[in-house]
Amino acid sequence: MKIEIDPEKFALALLQKEKEPSMTNEKFVKENLLLYLEAIFVVSEFNKLESQQFKNMKENEIRDIISEILSARLN
Asked: E strands along 1-75, which residues?
């Protein structure tokens, strides 16, 4: 997965956050960038799992319908 961050939007978002006075600007930017990237990766993994779960649910529903049809034919 390629991630491209718009530097201007990222910088503008940082300006809205409060920086601890003892923190250097570089550390502040790096910590926020790390948090941003971690959020992207976690959400991407969640989306993959959710998509797979939805696919599995569909397959299970299809299997259940086929089972019901087969059992109705045998009864």
From this structure: none
Q: Is 23:9 a contact under the CB 8 Å cutoff?
A: no
Q: Are 31 and 46 in contact (CB under 8 A)?
A: no
- Contact present, 24 and 61 (Cβ < 8 Å): no
Alpha-carbon distance 4 to 12, whole Å? Answer: 16
| Three-state secondary structure call for residue 39 | helix
Q: The whole model's pTM is what?
A: 0.65
- C-alpha to C-alpha distance for 75 and 4, rounded to whole angstroms: 59
Average pLDDT over all residues of the chain: 88
Tell me the CB-side half-sphere exposure of residue 14, using CA atoms within 13 A.
20
* Residue 26 near residue 11 (C-beta atoms within 8 A): no
